[in-house]
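In keeping with the milestone schedule agreed at the kick-off meeting, the structural modelling team has produced records for the first pair of proteins. Each record is given below as a sequence line and a structure-token line. The laboratory manager (R.T.) confirmed that both were archived under the project's standard naming scheme.
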Amino acid sequence: MRSIIAPQMALSPGAKLGPYEIVELLGAGGMGEVYRARDISLHREIAIKILPPSFSQDSDRLCRFAHEAQAAAALNHPNILSIFQIGQEGCAPYIVSELLEGQSLRELLHNGPFTVRKTLEYGAQVACGLTAAHSQGVVHRDLKPENIFVTKDGRVKILDFGLAKLVQSEEKQSFEEVTLTAKTDAGVVLGTASYMSPEQVRGDVVDHRSDIFSLGAVLYEMLAGQKAFAGKSGAESMAGILKEDPAPFPVARKIPPAIERIVFHCIEKEPSARFQSAQDLQFDLDTVSNSSFGTSPLAGAESRRPRKISWTLGASGLALALIGTFLVGMRYGKTRVPEWHRLTFSKGVIQSARFAPDGRTVVYSAAWRGSPLELFVTRLESPESRPIDLHGTALLGVSVRGELAVIQSFATVDSGVQMGTLARVPLDGGSPREILHEVEFADWSDDGSNLAVVREESGSSVLEFPVGTPLARTSGFFAFPRFSRDGTHIAFFEYFDRSQDGGSVEIVDRQGHRKTLSENWSDLTGLAWSPDEREVWFTGTRVSGASGLIGVTLDGKEREILKAPTDLTILDATRDGRVLLTTQLWHAEIYGAGPGDKQEHELSWFDFSLPDDLSPDGKLLLFHEAGEAGGSNGASYLRDMDGGVPTKLTEGYCTGLSPDGDWAVCDMQAQPRPFLLVPTKAGLSQRLPDDHLFHSVARWLPDGKHLVFTGTEAGHGQKAYIQNIDGQTAKAITPEGVAHVEASPDGKYVSAMMTSGKIVVYPVDGGEGRDVPGIEAGEIAIGWTEDNRSIYVGRRELPSPVFRVEVATGKRTFWRKLAPVELSGANFIAPVLITPDGKAYVYGINRRLADLYVVEGLR
């Protein structure tokens, strides 16, 4: 084994540095060399930064090197490089950090200026990371494109807190205090000339507003394609920073005035005239990003806002004049206000809609005022809808022959997704003829003679045409298949998994040749072929905000067609340009009752509140916000069950509350990543060792020392695992095929909801599982009773009857029925949380309120 014994020795592949083995040199800069290395003990790849030989004897540089590690290691945030360890081998100090795959902002700038949307997205992420650092009293002091890294999945990371300095506001620093002496320079001001704030140049007191100035200079460069302060020398650049303003943005770039104001507000000469916090800057960037500003073609990273899949996601009562003010992105830059014709006027959710062959009759399925789904027919010239005598039926498609494809006897398998029996029925009346069981989506072929279907088979989602002939298969989830009018292709969505609606737009021909047209979208809610069939039109978003209408050509060119101040869903389009759209309001709400409450009450906070865990005594609720109010990363909160203002714990999603209520276990945003333990009171967050698993919901065992969770190893199915929070490696306690687990109050068993639909009990210490008898189809496991003998089970439909089922005998006892008083648009219930003594409970619902429109004039 080779070892580093002196800084003069080069690091070659195979060299050992403590428990790390060098793989290759990644790059070198003024503050050190960066290597890819392998953590031998944990079997993972990491990055090591080590001082180069020429600097290892420089005490000032050694001091800065150590300071970088201490400053960055104190920070724990998705937008800041994670530091794992600082060490020294012989005379060589080093820092161990996460290994990033991607490019620096400087490298990306070599390709030219960024689109407005990319600038807003990346800028907001940098501001988010700075907010976290500033809240800990850490100022970066050298923010520049070289120190901003964009990973392959679109995550922005701030690097090199080597100049960071704990804020000291008590006294002014002298010029000498903000310089370092190097061998070739008498004095070098800390920072990089083109991005330094005026107070840095002058040697004045530097606080968090200096970083805001630097970020403003970076944003300017991203938009303009040139530096804000670019002199021929460092001295000229610093003189410009003190006395001059950057040149106006090039006219050809067409930078919206609102964005220009944000950038120039960042680079005001006086700190008091800038944004006073990075959080305020982030808010403005997100606000502008969520408005109609953008460029075409669209660009942006994958959304980090998980949202449940929905066929239609409600909205009601938008004035046409309001919608018209948010229309953007017509083809060739021409703007034309489309004509909107409202078709529905009731309160509820619209599941699907299609034009009949005449192009003026519309068939749709909806659940109005809390009633079950049923079919309706309306015409463009009439405000009335006529029900078709098919109750409990959802529409899937209408053929060119005027025949309906419907789904009946269905069960809800996820938010807005039903699985049931596919049937066909004439539009002008008749009895449905059953075709196939356990179908989720279907669409008619171009001649109306056959159907393409999506259904589950052996744990995979399969697109078939004709029935029984697979064209595509995925471990994720297919949805919304739509035949082209010439019958050559089927367009569809592929989602990453059933728990999220992030995914891609795909097409496949009849021979099974498949192509991805556009990817990295979230909130994918509807799809249709464009009137001229040169594009696939779909509704979705890449940033936190409302879903818009997007077009993509068959060679992958994207454009934004329509934007509104609420979610849009496209349902159908005709050859002559009429488009069926819904405007939608989508909310997630929480209802429940605490110990001693005589009636349940609403516990929602913002627009998309989802319950995660209840304390054992039923007094504390852990929940998260997954909508616009939660931001691009989401946010987790803790609140008392008796009301009051919730406390924000962290960005991201926490899923389990410790038995004493002092800690929450949270997922890192990018997977696979280790769990993060976040204190609910004073204290510092703790990162658990990386187990290289893709995590799902985690729960604490009653001893407060172990977690039980579901996780997936790359290339394998999901299992249940147990992990000691003191750092031991996670251990699988079930076979593959587990969807969710809940621990018994004594910590000896878990109830596992299997992907097969069974509920199986497994010992926590390992061993064979045993099926719980008495479970009915469609029921899900909720939690355990306090005697450890029974589990609570319920259904996803509303209202949802909940039963206690004895694990040994299957004996069922009714507990209560869960449903809010107002059922309009509420068609999905999950999750449900019940304390073991049954004295407190909460449940979440999705409420979707929609209006159906025919829109003409879209191009």
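The second protein of the pair:
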Amino acid sequence: MEIIKGIENLKEPFRNPVVTLGNFDGVHLGHQRIFKKVKEEARKIGGESVVITFEPHPLKILSPDQCPPLLTPFKKKMMFIEETGVDKVLCIQFTMAFAWLSPPEFVKSILAGKVGAKKILVGYNYRFGKEKSGDVDSLKENCARFGIEVEVVEALIVDDAIVSSSKIRDLIGNGEVEKASKLMGRDYPVIGRVIEGAKRGHTLGIPTANLEMTEELYPKPGVYAVRVNLHGQGFNGLANIGFNPTFNANAVSLEVHILNFDREIYGEDLQVCFTKRIRDEIRFTSIEMLIEQIRKDIEWAKTNVFRNQ
């Protein structure tokens, strides 16, 4: 998959491109369905499948206070889009000047002019142009002037819920990672660099990797069964997100205990996929009680989550 960063770096139109546009935060099942259709339509006309997305997220420019934590920051989003098998990603830098393009200007200068789109597929609720004044009807109207076909993809329903980035954010924020996994088509991942922590895990006999916190969305504080990926190798583990109330910590942290693992990995990047929530954080009155509970959590996860892995 080729990634083109910046519309100015697109030197010539794509080859018979079939295009979809959006933020695609989460690259969830709804997005994946659109990408599949884009690839199918591109094959029919011997063209290229193209995803157009934006960086930073438009709300970071238009209304920073209202911008939610991202499910998939840029690097993670590109990784998941590549897995869908599309040919090209055009990442347009979102600026105030770009935000002021009217729907007709956007279609004429970007979709018809720069991209050379032959067909466009968008979700049912797609909005574009200045102050989101464009909808799917205006997209069809403006694209028709340039002979560009537009297909609208209806909402995907899973377990009586519309699959959407906002719904997934709510589920993850509430710790409902299993429900979020169903809408994403994968367990929710967090990617972070291992940094030095308080090193309490070694003292307790249960070593943990402390991950550097970033702007992405983290599940509700608590203890989770997780899958850990390090250099393409997968491990089972337990993760604790929160404030370590037993130790009166004053900052949120993410600590991961990797089962059957004993290596120094400071500075390495870990991908931690949240499989199942085990419990809330608990403040214990003694270190011994904490150790006992952690060992119970590990055995519970081995029996109820990792048994068939």
